[in-house]
Design brief:
Blueprint (H helix, E strand, L loop, with lengths): L11 H24 L6 H8 L3 H7 L3 H20 L9 H16 L2 H13 L5 H9 L1 H17 L8 H13 L2 H6 L8 H19 L3
Length: about 210
């Protein structure tokens, strides 16, 4: 359309830089997920990523910074999948059902359970990991969810006095029962029916508290 500013195309050098950074992040993710934070050195990460230590350090000054970058990349991708622009065209019940289904499936996924275990296993020695995971994950999704609920309240679809409290309650409902069992290794992988049932229960309870009908 005339007058629109088109995004600037990346230069070959910038594209190569971004590709190399992604290569390092992919390798680091595999290593951190398999061995935790403290149980692995930069040598192993560089070897898995297929780069030299010098190259790795030119992108990330230390292992903690690299771990935080992995968390941010992972959680940003999760938030993008959960809070799609299409949600704006749905009723709040439909939108919350979409978000709840995604969250429940995420909380019960082996990858997310493993990530929580990785951070919890090292949090006493490296307390900054807990802050990094919270900022990249729960705090990010909380902001998206708060915005979704606030927009619905403005349209009169919900009655909410405290958006922060309501967003926290919704996320807690998504984790109810099944997540702890998965975290402690006493649950089998959740089936689609179990995920759908948990998501439906989450939305039903939430709307009973905050719905306008």
């Amino acid at each position: 359309m005339a007058g629109e500013v088109q995004p600037e195309a990346p230069t070959p050098a910038r594209a190569a830089t971004e590709a190399k950074e992604q290569q390092i992040l992919d390798g680091a993710r595999r290593v951190f997920m398999a061995h935790g934070f403290s149980g692995v050195g930069v040598d192993t990460i560089a070897r898995t990523a297929g780069v030299s230590k010098a190259t790795l350090y030119s992108y990330f000054p230390d292992k903690a910074t690299l771990f935080q970058a992995v968390l941010h990349a992972e959680c940003n991708a999760i938030a993008a999948r959960a809070f799609k622009p299409e949600l704006a065209s749905l009723s709040i019940e439909q939108a919350l059902r979409e978000v709840a289904t995604h969250f429940v499936a995420l909380f019960l996924s082996p990858e997310m359970v493993r990530l929580f275990r990785v951070v919890l296993g090292d949090i006493e020695r490296f307390p900054q990991l807990g802050q990094a995971l919270y900022d990249a994950g729960p705090a990010l999704t909380h902001r998206h969810l708060r915005r979704l609920l606030g927009d619905a309240a403005a349209r009169g679809e919900l009655r909410i006095e405290d958006l922060d409290e309501a967003a926290g309650q919704f996320r807690a409902l998504c984790r109810a029962q099944h997540f702890e069992r998965s975290l402690f290794g006493i649950a089998q992988p959740a089936s689609k029916d179990q995920i759908d049932h948990a998501a439906a229960a989450t939305v039903r309870v939430f709307l009973a508290a905050y719905g306008t009908d």
